[in-house]
Amino acid sequence: MPGKLLEIIPRPSTERGNADHGWLKTFHTFSFASYYDPNHDGFGALRVLNEDRVRPGTGFGTHPHREFEIFSYVVSGELEHRDSMGNVEVLKRGDLQLTSAGTGIRHSEKTYGSKPVHFLQIWALPSRAGLAPTYFTRHFSDKDKTNNWVRIVAPVGAEGVSETREAEGPAPVNSPVTLWAAILTPGTKLPHTFPVEGAGKGRKAYVHVVQTGGYNEGPATGATVRLSGEGKEVELREGDGAYVMGLPGREVQVQNVGEGNAEVLFFDIE
């Protein structure tokens, strides 16, 4: 990225991998399962960003994972998590669950109750292999996130990060990924400045607009978000995302230019 202060590349929802299995409707930002695109095969340590809707009485049965940091961000409905570490939990809107699979775990994720669950399934590559499996949960209210960036996941050892199973502040991830979330009301603009650590190195970010308006088979609808900075500008609708690349200290603006609220995830990736 020599000579470029800031670059924004849109990732339209209509170009994401997607599937409708009846019990599951899913979109894949990056290559996943039967969907493969060498141009969208992860971004830095961020490897999976799936937006899933699961019908009541169904879900992902018990299956294994290893050497991934796996987190679930619940948008609506309720999600039941069970794993081989003995954790059993029902997650609701505002909840975030993070499993560091490490040397290996088995888990299931199923809809709880009579309503579908809508959640984002996110995987990141760990900074090192062979870690002991661990499990964390956090809760962040809509009030916390309204017109405010809330740090919901951050690297182990970062300021304010607790490695307690349940705690205030961000969940600890063994990966160079920090995840911020916000709910923007119409007209609101929030800046995000790339950290200055590692001066001279390019920084990466991925921005995703949550598809809160529903499952869209055609062009994305609902909220509209504008990303801008250094003379660049891109507009995103629900389900859309964007790759952002810039130098340390550079700022990108995230603004809701639509009529409804916009729920936005901002991944800052070293």
UniProtKB/TrEMBL annotation:
Lipid metabolism listed as a keyword: no
Pfam family, one: Pirin
Cofactor(s) named in the record: Fe cation
GO terms for MF: metal ion binding
Keyword annotations from UniProtKB, A to Z: Iron, Metal-binding
Native organism taxonomy: Eukaryota, Fungi, Dikarya, Basidiomycota, Agaricomycotina
Name of the protein this chain belongs to: RmlC-like cupin
InterPro entries: Pirin (IPR012093), Pirin_N_dom (IPR003829), RmlC-like_jellyroll (IPR014710), RmlC_Cupin_sf (IPR011051)
Cofactor: binding comment: Binds 1 Fe cation per subunit.
Domain Pirin N-terminal positions: 18-123
Superkingdom of origin: Eukaryota
Ligand binding (Fe cation): H63, H65, H107, E109
Keyword Iron set for record: yes
PANTHER family attached to this UniProt entry: QUERCETIN 2,3-DIOXYGENASE
